[in-house]
Amino acid sequence: MRFKSLLNMECKLLEKQSVGTDQYNRPIKDFVPVVEGLGCRADKMKRRVSRDEYGTDIIVETILFVDRDVEIQDEHKFKDIKEKKTGRVTYPGVYKVKDIAPVYKRSSLHHYEITLEKE
């Protein structure tokens, strides 16, 4: 099965860019959409179990799978992750990158697995 067929969601990729200057002619930087409709897939995965005297907590993280077409960096953010077919926003809001894990198949880059953190 092709990897791109598994990417049943889309999101906006945000990058910090200069959007103008202030009254002192200093650059104003803000996150603006660089790629809209980026194919992705988001899943919640159980990472670890924490036990103490009060009980057991299961730590769950949001993982985003993205194709290798776009290079992902630590300073990028993702916004409004939604389903492609229905357009329903499943993960509303802005998520920052917590960790990036490039996945290789043989010797070439196959896709990125990105751990997200809600802002």
Low-pLDDT stretches: none
**Helix/strand structural class:** mainly beta
CATH architecture label: Beta Barrel
Percent of residues in β-strands: over 45%
Helical percentage: under 10%
Give me the count of strands.
6
Which class in CATH terms? Mainly Beta
Main sheet summary? 6 strands, antiparallel, barrel
The coarse overall form would be: globular
Q: What's the structural domain tally?
A: 1
Helix count equals 0
Explain what you see.
The chain is mainly β. The protein contains no helices and 6 strands. The chain has strands at 9-21, 27-52, 55-67, 77-83, 89-105, 108-118. The protein has a 6-stranded antiparallel barrel. 0% of the residues lie in helices and 73% in strands. The two termini are 34 Å apart. The protein has a single domain (3-118), classed as Beta Barrel (Thrombin, subunit H), CATH 2.40.10. 15% of the residues are buried.
What's the arrangement of secondary structure elements?
Blueprint: E1 9-21, E2 27-52, E3 55-67, E4 77-83, E5 89-105, E6 108-118
Antiparallel strand pairs: 1-2, 1-4, 2-3, 3-6, 4-5, 5-6
In short:
By secondary structure, the protein is mostly beta strands. The protein is 0% helix and 73% strand.
List keywords for this structure.
Thrombin, subunit H; 119 residues; 0% helix; 6 strands; mainly beta; 6-stranded antiparallel beta barrel; globular
